[in-house]
Amino acid sequence: MNIFKKMTFLLMGLLLLMAMPALTWAGGLYLYEVAPSEVRTASAGMAARAQDASTLFTNPAGMTRLKQPQVLFGAQPLYIDLNFEDDSSTSAHNLRQPDGSGADDGDASAWLPTGSTYYVHPVTSQLSLGIGVLGYFGLALKYDDGWVGRYYAKEARLQGMTIMPAAAYRVNDWLSFGAGLNAMYGMLKEKVAVNNNPLGLGNVPDGELEVKDNEWGFGFLAGVLVEPTQHTRFGATYLSKTRLDFKAKADFSDLRPALEKILGRRGLMDTDLNMRVNVPQAVMLSAYHEINDRWAVMGNLGWQDWSDFGSIEVGVSSADTGTLTADMHYKDTWHAALGVQYKASEPLLLSLGVAYDSSMMGDGQRSPSVPSGLAWRFGTGAEYKVKKNLDVSLAYEFLWAGDMAMDQNRGPLAGRVSGEYSNTSMQFINLALNWRF
Asked: Which CATH architecture has domain 3-436?
């Protein structure tokens, strides 16, 4: 297959992904599950393994280890299990639904489609080029219309689709460098109910506030791969901050005349909202070592800069409100992972991994639009060489966040929402093809 046909084939795949933005949805804010190898190892060794085309993102320097052009396509449905149970401190029970019934607990559980594709082409024995389309950052939640936290969030979507061209250069037998341009298309959409009846007198329908915008942001990825021996390698990557400057209009609907007049006097009706989101910079250090012809061990240490995140929450907390956005005061997170690979036979490779990430927020910062916490990941999977130039892989990962307390009180129109997200988890299933030309 000549280079023109290869690039045509790749571009068709990229256009397919771009035409189906749901394939890049992420169910959490920052996901390592960008390829089958990261799912089945829980990301352990991600900056040092360099075993397929997904190294373009996990460490672009690793592209120098790929001796043939190859393309990787991955389909990855994920399930979010997110259920909120309120407690006796929740005053939002008194903020009744339009039909007169009390408010409900919140359930944002859902299946979401995700996926990625990568192409790497060795130009010479020292230089490799590639391009990838993936989603590593985002959140997509939708609650029932009548739940107790509807004045904080009904729908929260912050998604980033990354298109990354990358290059790698091998300096010598043991040292390679790589870099990529992170072109991220950010998509923001938030809906919150607006309380038209704070006194709870009669049955008054809720109003609604919606904001949405799409913007491009740019950053970069840099990596280094060190191979002191044939069986050992170390990798390090730096992923820069990507700034998304959303300029969304506050679109109110179905407000009662009195509240509409108050918000109008404060200049909040149809106002333009400047919402800056800083997709955090991150550092990853990884190691990979082959013990023998069958066994390999690997691990990670990582850091993410969540303290420089920005503001994404919107809402009307009281009739005296002067702003519709809230800054997120998060804290930086730390990551660690360990994994093993076992070559059961010439065509079959088995993997297993576990990872831990600290929480970017305390209980007082957790909100319905970003209900995040610590995360334990447990991954496993297999890769099978169907033919000399074709691998098929199946991977599964279970992410456990456990119980996450929440207590938010932003004023009389929103009410107090207190309780717990119980047994929070995510499940990833990845099916992928890796084709070498």
From this structure: Beta Barrel (2.40)
